[in-house]
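[job 0412] stage=complex_fold ligand=pyridoxine-5'-phosphate status=START
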Amino acid sequence: MLLGVNIDHVATVRNARGSVYPSPLEAALLAEIHGADLITMHLREDRRHIKDADVVAVKNAISTRLNLEMALTEEMLENALAVQPADVCIVPEKRQEITTEGGLDVLSQQDLVAEYVWRLTAAGIRVSLFVDADEQQIQACNDVGATVIELHTGAYAEATTVHTRQQQLMRLEEAALQASEMGITVNAGHGLNIHNVAAVARILAIKELNIGHALIAQAIFMGLPQAIKQMKETIFRARSIPY
Ligand code: PXP
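[job 0412] stage=complex_fold status=DONE, emitting structure tokens
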């Protein structure tokens, strides 16, 4: 099982103050040192977190691989062809959404998706389609020539009852099996955190998990004690008082 570390929300914190830190590039390099198998970033059309320059900087510096999430638009396609990430994950995108809500509707736009899969694949980029755990959508992924899919785990992660959670887990299991029997590589992600990741990690047909928000959130609390200590030491040293 591979772990893709999504660094979008490092950029969210940076952009909140219009500063240059925390740097998504630094986060990517640190993530690699500590076991990330790949780095995932979503260049949204509104550039609300990751900026174009972040993608280029990360692509040029990392030693694992870059998984670039992008919408199904000509602008993003041109951008991916220029940056040449190892992987592209095509996601649906709506301007007003807080995060990616629901999977890509491959079924209703098969010709367009097939064209994107073909153009990116021809440029040597591995293409993944971010879809819901839905039998028809997975069949459509196969029909458009996708060799990789990422199952949207949001409905599982957001389930509020044990029953719905179990139902969503079964849907993920069935979808993962269906796709892998078609020879499609199956990844998963969205909304996964330390409390809900284990059940998804037990689905053997899933080969890679992409996790962002919960990891960055957890990192704040794991890093805060050290950050406070460092700040106090620096302040005390400035006054020549031992801390
Ligand atoms: N996978 C895809 C395709 C996504 O769009 C996202 C969110 O950007 C994630 C995984 C990571 O989701 P989260 O930030 O909730 O872990």
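Residues 6, 8, 42, 69, 89, 91, 99-100, 130, 150, 189-192, 210-214 surround pyridoxine-5'-phosphate (CB under 6 Å).
[job 0412] exit 0
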